[in-house]
Amino acid sequence: MQSEAAARGRRCGMPKAEPPPPPPPRPDPVKLQVKCVPWSTMDFVVNARLQEYTVANLEEIIKARHGDPIDNVELYKDNTSPENKLPGGATSTLQECSTTTIFYDYFPPLDPFMNRPVAGGLHATNQTINLRTFEVKPGEPSEPPVIEPAKLTWSKVAEHDPWKARELAEEARKEAERIAAEEAAAAAEAARIEAEKAEAKRKKEEEKRLKAEAAAKKKREEEEEAAKAEAERLRRLEEAAAKDPVKQAELQKKKAEAEAARKKKEAEEALAKLPPRKKGNAIGLFLGGTTREYYGLHNTTVEDPYLLIPKAKMMGEINDKGKIADLYNFKPQIEKYSGADEDILICKDEYEVYGDNGFVICLDEADKLHFMAHIAAGNGLPPPL
User: Fold this and answer.
1) Residues of the domain holding 130
2) What confidence tier does 121 reach under pLDDT thresholds 50, 70, 90?
3) Alpha-carbon separation of residue 299 from 51, 142, 163, 303, 347 (angstroms)
4) Domain-located, residue 367
5) pTM
6) Are residues 333 and 315 in the same domain?
7) Would the pLDDT of 131 be above 80?
8) Across 322-327, average pLDDT
9) By CB neighbour count within 10 A (0-12 exposed, 13-18 middle, 19+ buried), where does 259 fall?
């Protein structure tokens, strides 16, 4: 139907309908100079489509540029005459102000760059700010312009002015020096006290050493005098017993007792100088008859209870017999043994001091030396740890 009507219209010579005109082009951005009355360093230029910005939007931009809050902002067009004052928070567009210069004032007019060293230090005055807006389509509500305060901030009040900052820095430096001096004095005093303690300790040890040396010298002299007296006594006895068999026997007995006492004393002195023993290195040991004979331990007695057996001999038997060797369980300790002569002591335990196994093996040099010294002193086996 529609196409037939169109055909009839053409046949009847009706004029063709004109297409609707295109929408007007979006206006170009213009530059709006914004001047700060109290501080020219806050001047800036807005590069935007002003018909799409309101006075309230401009107030928001101005406040965003001040890093610290400002109050009582007043806007003027062209100049600061009272009649040119713009209403605060107005929704009218900047284009409606019919101007390209806006002034703003605020109270109190505090320096936005308070504490700055010099105004000339500001590297960018009268900045140009490019702001984005959105094209408004006919019949549709307009979108607000894009204002990002964090990106617009230009000034920021410092915590302290340069003079106060220098004063505080100087106070901090002096305080740091005071603390360092106190710490150095405390360290020096601590060192002095430690030195005094060390000197007192040295003197005490020196005094102790001198006393010990004096006591040892006195004892040595007394022993030498006693030995001389005993030698003189024995000499007289020898002279008296030269022709008397009974006295001769008595003399030999006394000589044997004196020799035994001497040996015991030497053994006890040697025992006192030995290194300390460690638990677990003197262990009760059972040995079969064949093993005892192999090492000669079947000949040991209570009076002569131990033998020193070469480590190599023990390892040879262990390697030959393997797990059936009586000493096999001690192979790791025997391998690690590192005595001066690498002779390991096995001692007869007649009185079961270390259990009822019959023998004791010393797997450490210190234990070996202790066993030998104890037995030499006539004290028997040293007790287990």
Assistant:
1) 30-158
2) very low
3) 125, 120, 101, 11, 11
4) yes
5) 0.38
6) yes
7) no
8) 93
9) exposed
